[in-house]
Design a protein that fits this description.
The chain has helices spanning about 5-15, 40-45; strands at about 25-30, 30-40, 55. The protein is of the alpha+beta class. The chain has one domain (about 5-55). A three-stranded antiparallel beta sheet has the order 1-2-3. Strand 1 and strand 2 form a beta hairpin. It is flat and about 35 Å long. The mean pLDDT is about 85.
């Protein structure tokens, strides 16, 4: 399996383990993962939530 897809799946599993919806993603630049995240709308119990990626 592609290493970037695998990293996104791992993020999705983290979200699911936290009681949320299993949605994960990674941001790749020049073949390097520079950001990653998963959906936290359910965990944060907000009506509206934006996806954030931490870079660095």
């Amino acid at each position: 399996m592609d290493k970037f897809l695998q990293a996104a799946i791992e993020e999705a599993k983290l979200g699911l383990a936290e009681g949320g919806i299993p949605i994960g993603s990674v941001l790749v630049i020049d073949g390097e993962i520079v950001g990653r995240g998963h959906n936290r709308r359910v965990q944060n119990t907000r009506e509206c939530s934006a996806f954030r990626v931490n870079i660095g």
